[in-house]
Amino acid sequence: MKKLTQQFVLVLTLAALTGCAGIGSMDFPGVYKIAIPQGNVITQNMVDQLLPGMTKRQVIFVMGTPLVRDPFHQDRWDYIYSFQPGGGQRGQERISVFFEDDQLVNFTGDFTPSEMEAVAVDADSEEVTDDV
């Protein structure tokens, strides 16, 4: 009888321990999970305001202070925004801005200028060009 009781307690303990193994990965109903925004908020309106020839100060006025300023590459700024809704997948947006002689030359990333802003008509040659 004593051996049966010991086996029963052992089986109960093992069952309890294996039942607790998944607690950290479970989603309990009613538990609030916060949304986590990080970095610079980047909007299409901000990107549409970027024009070739803008100074670094003007870009900071439009886009805000860059998240990454590499001391070895002073003419490249990176703006990164990541957002993870509570319990959801993390999304990330990125834009890199390039300068030459303290003036904006171009930018690359997840955003492109809107069609109306990107197309400019050159008055001398009447050609349609895409400067940015």
Describe the fold and architecture.
A hairpin with a 6-residue loop joins strand 3 (76-84) and strand 4 (91-100). The protein has four helices and seven strands. Helix content is 27%, strand content 29%. It has a domain at 34-112: Beta-lactamase Inhibitory Protein, Chain:B, domain 1. By secondary structure, it is an alpha+beta fold. The strands form two sheets. Strands 1, 2, 3, 4 and 5 form a five-stranded antiparallel sheet that branches. Strands 6-7 form a two-stranded antiparallel sheet. Mean pLDDT is 78; it is low at 117-130. It has helices at 2-19, 44-49, 56-63, 115-118, and strands spanning 36-39, 68-69, 76-84, 91-100, 103-109, 119-121, 128-130.
Largest sheet: 5 strands, antiparallel
CATH class of the domain at 34-112: Alpha Beta
Average pLDDT, rounded to a whole number, is: 78
What level of helicity do the residues show? 25-40%
Radius of gyration: 27 Å
Shape: rod-shaped
Name of the CATH architecture of the domain at 34-112? 2-Layer Sandwich
Write down how many β-strands occur, each being a DSSP E stretch of 2 or more residues: 7
Amino- and carboxy-terminal Cα gap: 85 Å
Structural class: alpha+beta
> What is the number of helical segments per DSSP (H or I, 4+ residues)?
4
Query: Would you list the SSEs in sequence order as H and E?
Result: HEHHEEEEHEE
Residue windows where pLDDT falls under 50 for at least 5 positions: 117-130
Percent of residues in β-strands: 25-35%
| Topology-level CATH name of the domain at 34-112 | Beta-lactamase Inhibitory Protein, Chain:B, domain 1
